[in-house]
Design a protein that fits this description.
The complex is a heterodimer of chains A (113) and B (119). With 113 residues, chain A is an all-beta fold. In chain A, the strands form two sheets. In chain A, strands 2, 4, 5, 6, 9, 10 and 11 form a seven-stranded mixed β-sheet that branches. Chain A has a four-stranded antiparallel β-sheet with strand order 1-3-8-7, with no helix packed on it. In chain A, strand 4 and strand 5 form a beta hairpin. With 119 residues, chain B is mostly beta strands. In chain B, the strands form three sheets. In chain B, strands 2, 5, 6, 10, 11 and 12 form a six-stranded mixed β-sheet that branches. A four-stranded antiparallel β-sheet of chain B has the order 3-9-8-7, with no helix packed on it. The mean pLDDT of chain B is 91. Classes of the chains: A mainly beta (113), B mainly beta (119). At the A-B interface, strand 4, strand 5, strand 9 and strand 10 of A face strand 11 of B.
Chain lengths: 113, 119
Amino acid sequence: EAGVTQFPSHSVIEKGQTVTLRCDPISGHDNLYWYRRVMGKEIKFLLHFVKESKQDESGMPNNRFLAERTGGTYSTLKVQPAELEDSGVYFCASSPFGGGGYTFGSGTRLTVV
Amino acid sequence: AQKVTQAQTEISVVEKEDVTLDCVYETRDTTYYLFWYKQPPSGELVFLIRRNSFDEQNEISGRYSWNFQKSTSSFNFTITASQVVDSAVYFCALSPLNAGGTSYGKLTFGQGTILTVHP
């Protein structure tokens, strides 16, 4: 079974530019989560999809962040325009409906300069 | 609100020493899950263990063991006879159970403990 795939693995962009991160969950997993770790701090929840619907987006920092999950498969997280404080590692995770494995991807390291 | 505290920011040990990573949590939920994850230098988050709040039995898996004490809201992790490959950042995390008691909610993580095992 393929795991959770995230790309790119690294991205360096200039302040003000746009970046789109992608997450492919494990096939069949209804739940998809985005998390972020900034500068050695704790990993913080951003949002949770159940299929294509946003179940909880309470962790999204501001309206520069837009997450989508069209068709309930892969998800994208767009940051527009990027700011310096957006630098960090963005993790995606998925889990099946009804519980079971909660699997994380390898993360995307975003650096805004 | 939920909170997870890993008071040890960094720990350094010599190979073969035992090491315990502390985790203290706060939650108003009566049912919840606790997790430990390992983040090696390669960056991915590796699942180590999940424990639900109904089960206070300690668990051992090879050189790893976990001590869950509900009375003190702690879920500590011990590595016995540490090895260089154990060097990583270790995260403790907490999530509620949903209304159906089956699916995980969002995870609340601690700040992580950097473990360095020297040869």
